[in-house]
Predict the 3D structure of the following.
Amino acid sequence: MHKRNWYLIPYSLWIALFVIAPIVLIVYYSLLGLDGEFTLANYENFFTSTYLTMTLSSFWYAFLITLFSLLIGYPTAYLLTRTKHKQLWLLLIILPTWINLLLKTYAFIGLFSTYGFANQVLEAIGIGRKQILFTDFSFVFVSVYIFIPFMILPIFNALEKLNPSLVDASRDLGASNWTTFRRVIFPLTLDGVKSGAQLVFIPALSLFMITRLIAGNRVITLGTAIEQHFLVTQDWGMGATIAVFLIIAMAIIMALTSTKRKKGVTS
Amino acid sequence: MKKLVQLFALIFLLSAAILFALDRLNATQGYSGENVLNIYNWGDYIEPELIDQFEKETGIKVVYQTFDSNEAMMTKVEQGGTTYDIAVPSDYAIAKMIDEDLLIPLDQSKIPNVKHIDPRFLDVSFDPGNKYSIPYFWGTVGIVYNRDLIGGDAITSWKDLWKPEYKNQILLADGAREVMGMSLNSLGYSLNETDEAKLQEAKRNLMELTPNIKAIVGDEIKLLLANEEAGIGVVWSGDANEIMSENDKLDYVVPSEGSNVWFDNIVIPKTAKNVEGAHKFIDFMLDPENAAKNTDYVGYSTPNKDALRLLDPEVAEDERFYPGEDVTDKLEVYENLGKEMLAHYNELFLEFKMHSK
């Protein structure tokens, strides 16, 4: 028995040093004012209209990003399970995640700029130049582009695990395609959707570089504010306070979307 | 199990080898001693030939390293373990470093060439009497504009930016001091204002500018302006100079209400091992001929009045980058307003950014 516990030591050390200690530090810093004294002023400050609006708008954009990722990701994952060269297609979807986030974002600045590729296309088909860069559209588009592999993969796995005979049975019993999807396929892949939504929504809440590069600071998220407070203002207390609220929000989301294993259901 | 052990051993050996190689590389770079001068400067901010010349003239070996932000530089100096003999921080960073006792006072008797510096740039608020620092380059904050894109009119003042015809044309630099300072200046206040009512007025004033603002961006502003993404940009003069050389439709103006003047000064940080050599280097860089050569290469504005005479008159007489005293009298340095005030500036700036839809 004792021997087995030895194996846990590196892991528990890791958790203690790199998960628990940083969270404790963040909470500690959130209680420090600019003068280094203990205070609750940062928390008071958080409940002013500026930060509350910012929180709401962060949630709104994260919600939009998740929604569009799901709307595009689910059908894509479904189609993927039907293709011949699954592994190849999957690789193509994962490939962009190997490229540095900043590089991809910079590429979009070029594509979306006034004289960029997107506008050349719009002009060629007769719509004419539009402002694309620094709009809500470009922000959500680029974010969805960046996050979508994380939505597709869990859904793809869930669809792969789905026993095809269940679908056949549903058809045999006279269910239409839509009913089959609604009553059989979707409920059975809901776990995949939930973990996909977690993987997209939570990082989307704290996005920051893209808000400046693609949205030109017209979208301000909690992540932007944290970055500002740590790097520019050096008001670590306020930055840490926002981070505390982000951690709480993430914990709530995890709890809400966590999948409870139902007893008796086996795959 | 045996395979696993082998694998671990292999990874361990590889890591050790990399560590050893790194250590050797660092050792060849960071050695220090009597005859070595460690210079810590911004990237691409000195004429490389001058370093060779300095080495030949004095027999001191120069080790040149670069940083990309004042904050990064300060952290390195503060933590110690480095042996920088020379650093080139900006004005507010110098004030901070003096406060935190990170600089060594200069021995003025060893820098006779300081007489070539324009007295306008000596004895400024962040370092009274130049006890710790000597100006290296200077510049302003102003407006870059593209005549073709904004309909031919020249911009002359901050107030012009509020004109309704510049809808969705302006790019701002993402800095609280710069943007708040612009608004304060346009209202006729000092950009170091601390009066709450005036600061609130400046914020409301900024919010009225919202329809004209296309984006608030960082370093990308250079690329965006050069590519004609927007017609107007609020930028530092150094950046302006750089993008104007890429796109000749662009022009730069220091607004008539006044603006910010910034300095990058040479200092000797506490980490210095070769204080004697550092003084020699400062004096060497202040020599008019060397300063002129350096200015030719870097392209920023030199504070050295005798070097200015040696420059191409077209550069030296360019009022945009070498404004006369009537303009410089209206320029202000960003004073160190203290952490509280800086946080407040940032808070106001953040409120403005939230509003800018």
